[in-house]
Amino acid sequence: MPASVSLLDHLERVTEATSIEAIWQLHLDRMAAYGFERLLYGFTRFRTTNSFGSTDDLLVLSNHCQEYLDEFVQSGLYAHAPMVQWAAANEGACSWRLIETVAAAGDMTPIQKRILDLNLKHGIRAGYSISFRDVSVRAKGAIGLCARKGVSQSEVEAIWAEHGREITVINNVTHLRITAMPFASSRRALTPRQREALEWVGDGKTMQDIATIMGLTPATVEKHLRLAREALDVDTTAQAVLKASFQNQIFVFPA
Questions:
Q1: Are 215 and 200 in contact (CB under 8 A)?
Q2: Predicted structure pTM score
Q3: Rounded Cα distance, 2 and 17, in Å
């Protein structure tokens, strides 16, 4: 169990990290020390009543193999997983023993059985999930902590009985730090000019004002805004400002 770095020192490093990548690596190392060697974190600010939104708008962090992620996440299969469905409707921590309970009751759908087989194929058998509390009804974040191969669910329960509160606090702080960082897929990252134009729109400036401030023609400003709308996959500039703000891509210090 963690000993070389105290809990306070670890949390200090997390709060001082300057990128999602750095935060995530700290988290991987810390959770591995508790016996959770593979993690899958997901966050969206675009959830609806019956969907987590577009896969392109999901922030997914994981050290699972790419083959598993392609089949479980990219295909949309994750939305049918029992632990993901639990996380969508609840907050806090939940043992993966829930999966055993659902399977024993005969309540698994064909697609959930497919997920179970996929997990078994990749040695995903024991662990815990944490569903985070978010301020917006459209936001949802959760993480699956997969125990190292060979560890049983009963052994995981013993780990959780001793360290569960500490693990939950670490995950909550990590979640808060990650969601405070700028994030976007490489396809949707805004250029500096697109960010600046959206920031001036957010400040209530007119097209002519923005052109004067940026030293551009109104037509060039509109071009930057159009490309920003395309990058963010929205129809209006107002939606682009909102979405870029959600993703912490505007009104932030340069990296």
A1: no
A2: 0.79
A3: 20
